[in-house]
Amino acid sequence: MHDRGWLHMRNDGKMVYYRLSPDALRQVLQEGRIFLEEGVAS
């Protein structure tokens, strides 16, 4: 997920924080919705 740009990492020296990219999440959900709609339509 990190190499696809979905996750962003921040390291403060003691802890490593990850956050999900909202734009990437939106794109994945949209692609999933299209995939499901095409499967239902066929």
Written overview of the protein:
Keywords: Plasmid. This is ArsR family transcriptional regulator. This protein is α+β, with helices and mostly antiparallel strands and 42 residues long. It has one domain. The chain has one helix and two strands. The protein has one helix spanning 22-41, and strands spanning 7-11, 16-20. The protein has a two-stranded antiparallel sheet. 0% of the residues are buried.
Sequence-ordered SSE layout with sheet pairings:
Layout: E1 7-11, E2 16-20, H1 22-41
Antiparallel strand pairs: 1-2
Organism: Acidithiobacillus ferrivorans
Protein name: ArsR family transcriptional regulator
Keywords: Plasmid
Notable features of this structure?
about 40 residues, alpha+beta, 1 helix, rod-shaped
Strand order of the largest sheet: 1-2
Structural class: alpha+beta
- Please summarize the sheet with the most strands: 2 strands, antiparallel
Helical proportion?
40-55%
Number of domains: 1
Total strands = 2
Percent of sequence in beta strands: 15-25%
Number of helices: 1
SSE run: EEH
CA-based shape: rod-shaped
- How many whole angstroms does the radius of gyration measure? 15 Å
What value does the average pLDDT take? 84
Could you give the distance between the termini? 30 Å
Low-confidence stretches: none
Question: In summary, what is this structure?
Answer:
By secondary structure, the protein is an alpha+beta fold. It has one helix at residues 22-41, and strands spanning 7-11, 16-20.
